[in-house]
Amino acid sequence: MSNDPTTPVPAPVPVPDSPFRAEPGDRDLAPQFVLPLVVRIERAAPPPRTDALETAARAVLVMLADERSTGDGEWARAMRDWQDARIRKVVRRARGAEWRRAEALPGITVTGKTAEVRVFPPVPLDGWPKDLARLQVSGTDLDDPEPPVGADLSAPVLWMNPDLEMSAGKAMAQAGHGAQLAWWELSDAERAAWRDAGFPLSVRAADPARWPGLTTGGLPVVRDAGFTEIAPGSCTVVADHPALRR
């Protein structure tokens, strides 16, 4: 899995010191926080890659929508501090006793078809709980035993760049960024409808012929800061929510 400081741009109002910027800006002067995600990968039964990506994206949305993350909720201050700085997510892996220790910490476990991802409130970059800090970032990768079926275009789709090779952890973080960008762009009513439906979404590699049009069609685009795995400024994900289609 990959330590992923990719930096999506908050909506609806662009700001000069955008978290997309690779160059230092005011956001770098703020205390830096990270959103931890832990994926359960048991040695005998790892989840399919696409299921893990989709579950990670939903986990980010569940955290953003949770009442503890907003207003005067117990996680609200950490969520605000995280979003005021660089928008960072780190995906780590756990199995067995490691997973049980992670589940004992405050957070939310989101389950996909077989994947399990636990998301935690943001923590300082240098202030990870010890039971999360000891988990591995790199290591086991994930594959799809069978090619995923076509995406349901009536629901949100997070289109991944077909020309980039990313580890499972990097791709999970990128999918989470894409889901977050879509969430920021939606109205309160659209957010509530998505939440009430259980955050349906698909993560799929885009058709290479369609990718240039997706990145220039007005939909939210995640660009990588280039700190890990891929070149700075790379477009990694397009968040294609039906409510945002022009």
Shape: globular
Describe the biggest sheet?
6 strands, mixed
Percent of residues in beta strands: 15-25%
State the distance separating the first and last CA atoms: 35 Å
| Average residue-wise pLDDT | 88
Q: Which structural class matches the secondary elements? A: alpha+beta
In sequence order, what are the helices and strands, one letter per element?
EHEHHEHEEEHEHHEHEE
The gyration radius over C-alpha positions equals: 17 Å
Structure description:
With 246 residues, the chain is an alpha+beta fold. It is built from eight helices and ten strands. The protein has helices at 26-29, 49-65, 76-84, 96-103, 130-133, 168-185, 188-196, 211-215, and strands at 3-4, 33-40, 89-94, 108-111, 116-119, 123-124, 157-160, 202-205, 221-223, 235-240. The strands form two sheets. Strands 1, 2, 3, 4, 5 and 6 form a six-stranded mixed β-sheet that branches. A four-stranded mixed β-sheet has the order 8-7-10-9. β4 and β5 (116-119) form a beta hairpin. α2 (49-65) packs parallel to α6.
